[in-house]
Structure formats: structure tokens, C-alpha cells
Amino acid sequence: MLKKTVFFRMESNVKLLPQSIAEIILSGRSNVGKSSVINALCSQKNLARTSKKPGRTRSINVYSVAMKKWMIDLPGYGFARVSFEEKKNGIKW
């Protein structure tokens, strides 16, 4: 079932996320492999974009696993190589 997972959308405002009946959310420090876990679980090499530099994921990335069932990749917390302005204007919780 996870092999049919597709990128659905990216969002920076939590209130605009789509309704779901089930979610898997990956959260953790910057550059620990959250996006890589999504790729491994879905048996797809480039479904979630990865990088060796911390801070690659800068928005909430939603992947559709099945109808109204999402896998969500959150940006990491802690060190990230982004500008002060990007840090200041980050995700709206």
C-alpha cells in the first residue's frame, strides 16, 4: 500500500492542512533522516527530497498514502542553514 504513496502538497500554515482520517507524522531534529524514512517506507528513492545539509525541508510536506490518509514530513528543529528571515517567518502553528 505504501508503494502507491504520492506527494500531495506542501503547506506553511497548519490551519490549511487537508482533513484526514489517519496520519503518520515524522518529527525530529534537523538532518536526522525523516525524509529518508519516508522514501524507505514507500520504496521510492526520490519521493521526499533529501539533502546532506540541515534544513532542506522548510514546509509541511503532505504525502497521500490512501484516500484521506496522510504521511506528513515536518521541518526539523534545531540547527538549519537558513536565513534569519526564513527562521522568523517559518511555519505558522
Number of strands: 4
Shape: globular
End-to-end distance, in Å?
30 Å
Q: Would you tell me the overall average pLDDT? A: 86
Tell me the series of helices and strands, N- to C-terminal. Answer: EEHEEH
Strand content: 15-25%
CATH topology: Rossmann fold
Rg from Cα: 13 Å
What is the structural class?
alpha+beta
- CATH top level is Alpha Beta
* Biggest sheet strand line-up: 1-3-4-2
In percent, how helical is the residue content? 10-25%
Report what the structure shows.
This protein is an alpha+beta fold. It has a single domain, classed as 3-Layer(aba) Sandwich (Rossmann fold). It contains two helices and four strands. It has helices at 34-41, 84-88, and strands spanning 6-11, 22-26, 60-66, 69-73. The chain has a four-stranded mixed sheet, covered by helices on one side. A hairpin with a 2-residue loop joins strand 3 (60-66) and strand 4 (69-73). The longest helix is centred in the middle third of the chain and has 8 residues, at 34-41. The chain is globular and about 40 Å long. The relative contact order is 0.31. The mean pLDDT is 86.
